[in-house]
Amino acid sequence: GLFISIAILLFFQNKPKPSKSQIIHLNLPTIIGKEVFLFLKSPRIWGIMLFAGMTFSPLCLLGAFWGTSYMQSKGFDKTSAAFMTSMGWVGMAIGCPLFGKISDSIKRRKPILLFSALVGFASSLSLLFLPINNLILFSLFFFLIGIAGAGQSVSFATISEQSPRKYHPIALALNNSIIVLISAFIPLISSQLIHLYSVNQVYTEMSFIKGLSLIPLLYFFAFFLGILLIKETFCRDR
User: Fold this and answer.
1) Distance between CA atoms of 52 and 163, rounded to whole angstroms?
2) Quick one: 86 exposed, middle or buried, by C-beta within 10 A (0-12, 13-18, 19+)?
3) What is the pLDDT of residues 46-88, one digit of tens each?
4) CA 4 from chain center: how many Å?
5) Residue 107: strand, helix, or coil
6) Model-level pTM?
């Protein structure tokens, strides 16, 4: 935090340098009023935001809440379980710049988004329902769930390209807010299900499977949201 504060002090400018480009002056009370309401009336905008939240929240659910405990219920020690769970965040770290690079290269957003949902759907089903108990395979499934969660990074480019240029900051902020909001509520729902299916307040492997079955459903609905509501931008602004 101290380093960031010093960097802002040294490098951020309150006043832009003189340039020939046009400076747009916005009326702030108007922007956060009627324009935001009109912006949120767009089904395409909601499609992008909900898609991003549905594909990212499973990584939070597994990576920050129940992934390690689920792996322990399958017989792994805590260290191995934590290692497998952490592979989700590794997948996220690799997937974000990779998806961004591929998306920019092919000049397409929608195929990347749909691909991330499919990867998440397949890997979460495998993680929950395949009759295996292999550390390497489980690590791979967590890694792929992280890759799927990286699809949300492309959603930021998509939502900004779906919005008029002067509303880009609002679009990016709203997309981030919805992602965080969904990622906050999904663990609450899943945790209640895990608790509901526990046996004498003991979380068994089956109680985790039933509670975490919400994850492939999220990817499933995200995929169809992407098909129906997300429009290809071809990497061009409106």
Assistant:
1) 16
2) middle
3) 999 999 999 999 999 999 999 999 999 999 999 999 999 999 9
4) 25
5) coil
6) 0.87
